[in-house]
Sequence to fold (527 residues):
Amino acid sequence: MTPRLGGVSSFWEELTDLARPSNHLPMSSKEAVSAGRGVLFIAIAKLYFMVAGYAIYFTLPRLLGGEAAWGDYLLVIGLVSVIDNVIVTGTIQGVSKFTAQGDVGADAIKRAALQVQVLLGGGVAIAFALAAPLIAAWEKDPSLTPLYRVSAGIIACYALYAVFVGSANGQRHFFKQASLDMGFATIRAGAILAAAAAGLGVFGAVSGFVGAALVILVVSALWVRLPRGQERFPKLRLAGFMVRLFVYTLALNATMRVDLFLLKRNAVELVTATGDAAARAASALAGYYGTAQSLAFIPYQAILAVAFVVFPLVSRSTFEQDRGATQAYIRQTLRLSLVFVCGVATVFIANPEAVIVVPYQARYVAGAPALRILAGGMVFFSMFTIINTILNGAGRTGDTILSGVFTVIASVLGNALYVPLAASPQEALVRAAIASSAAMFFGLVLATGLLYRRYRAAFPLLTVVRVVVAAAAMIALGRLWPDGSKLMTLVESTALFCGFFVVMVIFGEFSRADLQSFLATLGKKRS
Fold:
């Protein structure tokens, strides 16, 4: 394979190549268009998944009726999400990597992965259910025990579902993967909100999540198919790679959530109430902070589509030992991801108070000071994630484990030592955001250094400068923008987001040729 280093054009050409069916037969013009659109459909599906998830976040607090109940839901689902994301991401990337390499049949890898997950995912789910009282006791709130226990069902279902999604991704069946994502997002939102609307409270909402996970597991098994044939793949080889990914992904997801868990625990000592009232007040504070987190996570959630697409792309280029192509993918991925993430984060940094009250009730504006800080921190974290996805795709799991472990240690220490020094619950929110964002910046610096050492590729310096200038200009404009209605806040947010990209175009970060190359890729005839 001859590397094509021509910039955005070659990047999108390679994405279209990646979407080509695994038999590598020549594509007609019609097939090429379908392949290119299939890659983009992944991004659309991830966007839909994010929007459906935020439909839950924006609606559920009203249905649950109070900050404490909302805080309980965030704590339980937040902890389950840490475990789920570890298993799901590691499984999808592990199955995808070995499937994409093409030296062994997809069914053999799928069979091995299902056997591994019956033991591993099932074991984790059982252990989590049994540990529910201990987890609740650590949070100083025994009322969380039944919620943690029932949520173990999500872990069991996700572990098996991830095998089928990983198989679809590795075979470049992006339409199928995207459809499963969109279907699950719809079922999950409907089940959770219906249960809460029926008055079943937090327990009902969590149970609805479990039911949705079970439904999508059955659908994925029927659509992607259970493994066929007699070919075998070494389970220990797959499990070894997956476990290395698990270690990194555990660190990654713990970094995202450890501040919320420690805030809940520490807040019991900061509030003026005692006993059960203190636990409820601490849950309310977690609700404020979790609300800020939910908005700050938007840039990260949006950029995950890049990770899903670039992982098998980098896996292929490194498997074929094409260093030039790998460097091109890295530079373009980092450049485009940084611009997009900063464009979104700028909106939240500029006017967090007004942004919060658009989707949430006014009482959640207490989390605005934390949102301003967390939005910046999530820029660091998003790019940290993209870099480590690249390293994992290249098989450099040791590097990702190193950066992930050191980052989560920094976050734990920062939150454990810095937050308890707060003079009030409100100050604790800000301190938690500062500690977490500082740890994320540290992780980004470390991951960037490891990436550069391996491939001599990193963020284009000129792009970084342009992004900083554009973001500063939009933040200053946002601070001058007069307060108004929710509609005016949406207008302001749209104007700042678009203005950011206008500045980037003026600076020459994007050109008309870039857009033309991207659009041409969708309909280009391939021989």
